[in-house]
Backbone:
């Protein structure tokens, strides 16, 4: 039969009618198939390894949850999209929420991207559990009281802990300090927090030079020369990507590691690249919120490390744990809210209420969400050592601090909080 | 200061590749940064493999240079692709070579993953030099010397050999050169491959002192363009002088007033664009 104009119009009308009907259906139909979880993970640029680490933690969590029967009997299905610049990532967030109709979105490590997504999550009423993306300034100013966003730990918590450890190990032993940090909010905030704490803890140190290479720099020979000239007793550095081993390598080659103490707040994120050949012992080294060889590692962490090593031939880092936690917390919150709702799949509002204050076992131990949607967890740092079976440094002793001690409490500013410490 | 010269040496190699190709083929090749990144990754892999197979560590410099030269084999096929747009508008060239940048990023991710790659312990094999309170890794001097040698060799090749005369003729007037019997496609292919080799060798040479990461190519393109603008597009001597200016200026800024590290370079770029838009060495084409 040839399609006449009339049959075509009828077809068109029918199709649009069906489409309209479908839009009218409440999301009830989504409660029987798999739970769709959207993930925004960086795949290119400096944050690519971080995004990859988050995806690995996500995969491990999904495999476990699905093997145990899913969430309330529904299997998890992942819809992975790329985190890139704020504008494009916001579009992908919308696509996940509106087109893929996911139940929840996890991911995002860049604060700039996170700040753009926050308002969109509120607008779409889409639940977003961030992996990272929480430097001070922007978050304080633009995301004061989110409802649909659950945030990560303050990015500066590692600088706070490293500063406390600096005071513990080096008080009275250092007089001059130098900073080398990336030229963006994270680097600037870390250096400012370090100096504020040095002052608060009456360390009596003078900053002699602060250097601001851009993120992604791969040549620090000139920076190392400037540091060598300033001859500080201690160098404070918040590098977290390939720049950390490059700086150590070039500092070592210029003889700087022999004379100067180092604090690397976050280089544990690329711990395998900190080879013994150029990384000194006795450096304060931070692993953020998960240390792969924690002395009291839980069976869960041991299993994850084994899985990670077998699958990727690498030892895991913290971003896997941020990602694992968001899924474990979501599952626990759904189950808790369902119990309260008489066994039915809970609404987003009910899940949000259940997430507030929830505590679950994550890879690194117990982690929770505060009532103001900020994560609580433990941080792992220590003094670098060469005494291990690897070709890279690890830490011994391992110091553990809770974010209750190193993260600003709800409702205060970072520096206001630091200045309120009792000496 | 020496740090700046070290940086300049690497920058020169990449910028020289860009200049050579632009000077002859009139293609603004953004992918020169990708060749640099590929050279770095390939260098790490080849040296790691060679050392694992029992090669003496002190030979690593030769292996690195060899890896850069071997990798230049990707030159002819890439040039064959670019040949389709020689006569098109510059925006097509930029789009296509930028597409190549993105594709090479994926190639790197496919073969080497996202984690940084490095050569752990060969950096200090040639020892350190102590000058007063300063300690300088000898390898940095080796790279500087290699950069200078390659600059001299390319200069000799372009001005003193038959190949150089053909290249300069083709750069000056390709139609006339072709009319006089120069096999232009073949010449372009060889010139482009030489340009690729400058980038890949640069990437391979720098790797013992640093780590290979995927975005290192894009980082370098930005600086290479500053070099090219300062030196003058298409000029080899311009690339040499521009690289030195950028490298040393950066080092001086870091030593004196670190906040100027990035700004200083662009102030010079703006000054050159305003006062001498064609660059410092604009006349000495190729």
Residues:
């Amino acid at each position: 039969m040839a399609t006449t104009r009339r049959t075509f119009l009828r077809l068109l009308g029918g199709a649009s009618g069906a489409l309209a009907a479908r839009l009218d259906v409440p999301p009830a139909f989504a409660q029987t198939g798999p739970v769709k979880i959207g993930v925004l993970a960086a795949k290119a640029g400096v944050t690519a390894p971080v995004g990859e680490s988050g995806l690995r933690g996500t995969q491990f969590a999904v495999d476990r949850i699905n093997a145990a029967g899913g969430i309330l009997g529904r299997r998890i299905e992942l819809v992975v999209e790329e985190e890139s610049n704020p504008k494009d990532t916001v579009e992908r967030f919308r696509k996940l929420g509106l087109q893929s109709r996911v139940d929840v979105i996890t991911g995002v490590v860049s604060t700039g991207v996170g700040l753009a997504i926050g308002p969109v999550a509120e607008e779409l009423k889409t639940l977003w559990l961030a992996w990272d993306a929480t430097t001070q300034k922007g978050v304080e100013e633009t995301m004061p009281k989110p409802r649909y966003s659950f945030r990560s730990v303050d990015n500066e918590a590692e600088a706070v802990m490293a500063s406390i450890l600096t005071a513990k190990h080096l008080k009275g032993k250092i007089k001059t300090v130098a900073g080398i940090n990336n030229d963006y909010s994270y680097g600037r905030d870390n250096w400012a927090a370090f100096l504020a704490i040095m002052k608060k803890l009456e360390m009596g140190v003078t900053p002699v030079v602060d250097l601001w290479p851009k993120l992604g720099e791969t040549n620090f020979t000139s920076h190392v020369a400037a540091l060598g000239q300033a001859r500080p007793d201690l160098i404070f550095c918040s590098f977290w990507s390939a720049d950390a081993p490059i700086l150590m390598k070039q500092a070592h080659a210029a003889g700087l590691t022999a004379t100067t103490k180092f604090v690397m707040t976050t280089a544990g994120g690329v711990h395998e690249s900190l080879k013994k050949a150029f990384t000194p012992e006795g450096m304060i080294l931070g692993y953020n919120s998960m240390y792969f060889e924690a002395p009291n590692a839980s069976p869960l962490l041991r299993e994850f490390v084994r899985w990670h090593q077998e699958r990727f031939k690498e030892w895991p880092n913290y971003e896997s744990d941020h990602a694992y936690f968001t899924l474990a917390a979501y599952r626990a919150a759904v189950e808790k809210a369902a119990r309260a709702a008489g066994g039915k799949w809970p609404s987003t509002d009910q899940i949000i209420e259940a997430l507030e204050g929830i505590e679950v076992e994550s890879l690194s131990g117990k982690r929770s969400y505060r009532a103001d949607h900020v994560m609580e967890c433990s941080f792992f740092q220590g003094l670098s050592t060469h005494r291990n079976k690897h070709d890279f440094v690890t830490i011994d002793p391992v110091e553990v601090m809770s974010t209750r001690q190193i993260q600003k409490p709800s409702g205060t500013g970072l520096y206001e909080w630091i200045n309120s410490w009792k000496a | 200061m020496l740090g700046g010269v070290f940086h300049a040496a690497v920058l020169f190699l990449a910028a020289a590749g860009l200049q050579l190709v632009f000077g002859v083929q009139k293609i603004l090749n953004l992918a020169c940064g990708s060749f640099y990144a590929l050279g770095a990754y390939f260098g790490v892999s080849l040296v790691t493999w060679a050392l694992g197979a029992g090669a003496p560590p002190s030979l690593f410099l030769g292996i690195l240079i060899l890896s850069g030269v071997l990798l230049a084999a990707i030159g002819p096929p890439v040039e064959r692709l670019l040949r389709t747009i020689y006569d098109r508008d510059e925006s097509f060239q930029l789009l296509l070579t930028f597409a190549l940048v993105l594709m090479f990023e994926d190639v790197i991710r496919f073969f080497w993953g996202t984690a940084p790659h490095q050569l752990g312990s060969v950096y200090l094999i040639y020892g350190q030099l102590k000058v007063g309170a300063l300690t300088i890794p000898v390898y940095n001097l080796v790279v500087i010397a290699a950069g200078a040698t390659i600059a001299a060799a390319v200069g000799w090749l372009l001005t003193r050999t038959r190949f150089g005369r053909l290249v300069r003729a083709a750069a000056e007037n390709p139609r006339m050169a072709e009319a006089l019997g120069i096999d232009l496609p073949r010449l372009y292919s060889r010139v482009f491959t030489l340009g690729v080799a400058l980038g890949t060798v640069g990437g391979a040479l720098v790797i013992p002192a640093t780590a290979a990461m995927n975005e290192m190519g894009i980082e370098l393109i930005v600086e290479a363009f500053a070099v090219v603008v300062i030196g003058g597009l298409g000029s080899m001597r311009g690339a040499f002088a521009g690289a030195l200016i950028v490298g040393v200026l950066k080092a001086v800024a870091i030593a004196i007033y670190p906040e100027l590290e990035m700004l200083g370079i662009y102030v010079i770029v703006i000054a050159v664009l305003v006062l001498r838009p064609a660059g410092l060495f604009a006349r000495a084409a190729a």
Remarks:
- The beta strands of chain B are 128-131, 134-137.
